[in-house]
Write a structure and sequence with these properties.
Elements lengths: L24 H22 L11 H42 L1 H8 L6 H10 L4 H12 L10 H14 L5 H7 L8 H14 L5 H7 L9 H15 L5 H10 L3 H4 L16 H5 L8 H13 L2 H9 L6
Helix pairs in contact: 1-2, 2-8, 4-5, 10-11, 14-15
InterPro entries: MTERF_sf (IPR038538)
């Protein structure tokens, strides 16, 4: 059976691979609408014009709208391709696991390999001698990893992780987050699909490679919703697209912001300095400049033009 959070992609004449998570297709459509709107604002601001008053002739305006449409469609296709590939990797892993359940059980029951054999295997997977020793120490100190202290079983686990993240160095990920060895492909794919759907056009794979713990949280749909909503409320842009960019640059926010969701946090200034500084992207210099920029951008056009002349760029 497929995980309940995902429907199998369908393929037919002229159809595309599709996978929908528990976040809901309505949320995907909303994100795409917001993305289109923000791209529109971005293009118009580059020409020092307000979004609702481009100052362009009809031909230029149509060209801009066509460019936005093409970009949006390209991002949607890329998202669908990634989702389809994730589903394919999950199905391959699931099929392999179900067709060899007795083999898996026998592998799990294998006795531990020698420390020398384990270290040699991890070095073959791309770890340095020091890193291999560090990972082995972490695995041997906690009994929950006992089944992984066999080269055959460890190879199986790394291969499973590699099918979900084929471009990643699986051993390096496990070095950063050993609990990945205990996770099911179901859980890994579910969290990836949730993030890709909620953050369209963003480098979600890059995000989880930088913060592997995101693959293991058990409440990703709800976490994305509550943290995104809080950041949208706090950030002076009040823009889901801007927040998606901030999360892409600072994926650790999906973990750390859980401590700052209370009603007593009403301003970015009330967040720890390290987190508050994550709200400032590109050439923006500090929270004061951030507030001024968005106040001018959403209010008086002269303020936006002055900001642009100072060398900034829109989010």
């Amino acid at each position: 059976m497929l995980p309940s959070i995902i429907r199998a992609p369908t393929v037919g004449p002229g159809s595309r691979h599709r996978a929908v998570t528990g976040i809901g297709q309505g949320h995907v459509n909303l994100c795409q609408h917001q993305q289109h709107h923000q791209l529109h604002r971005c293009i118009s601001s580059r020409a020092s014009s307000r979004p609702d008053d481009f100052g362009f002739d009809d031909g230029t305006r149509r060209g801009i709208e066509e460019a936005v449409e093409v970009l949006t469609e390209a991002q949607e296709l890329a998202q669908q391709q990634t989702l389809a590939e994730l589903m394919g990797s999950w199905q391959a892993d699931s099929s392999s696991s179900s067709s060899s359940s007795s083999d898996t059980a026998s592998v799990s029951a294998l006795p531990p390999s020698s420390p020398e054999a384990l270290q040699a295997f991890l070095i073959e997977q791309g770890l340095s001698q020091q890193q291999a020793g560090q990972l082995l120490k972490a695995l041997t100190l906690d009994s929950k990893y006992a089944a992984c202290l066999n080269t055959q079983r460890l190879s199986q686990k790394l291969a499973s992780l590699g099918r979900v993240l084929p471009d990643a160095a699986a051993a390096q990920l496990v070095l950063s987050e050993p609990e990945l060895l205990l996770a099911s492909s179901n859980q890994l794919v579910r969290n990836l699909v949730c993030m890709i759907t909620a953050l369209p056009g963003r480098d979600v794979v890059g995000m989880v490679l930088r913060v592997p713990l995101l693959l293991l949280v058990d409440d990703m749909p709800a976490r994305l919703e509550r943290i995104t909503n809080k950041l949208v409320a706090l950030h002076p842009s009040h823009s889901h697209t801007v927040i998606a960019g901030i999360l892409e640059e600072n994926p650790v926010l999906l973990l750390r912001m859980d401590y700052y969701l209370g009603d007593d946090i009403m301003l970015l200034d009330q967040l720890p300095m390290e987190i508050a500084n994550m709200m400032v992207l590109g050439d923006e210099s500090g929270l004061g400049h951030l507030y001024k920029y968005w106040r001018d951008k959403l209010g008086e056009p002269s303020g936006e033009q002055e900001w642009q002349e100072g060398g900034g760029s829109t989010a």
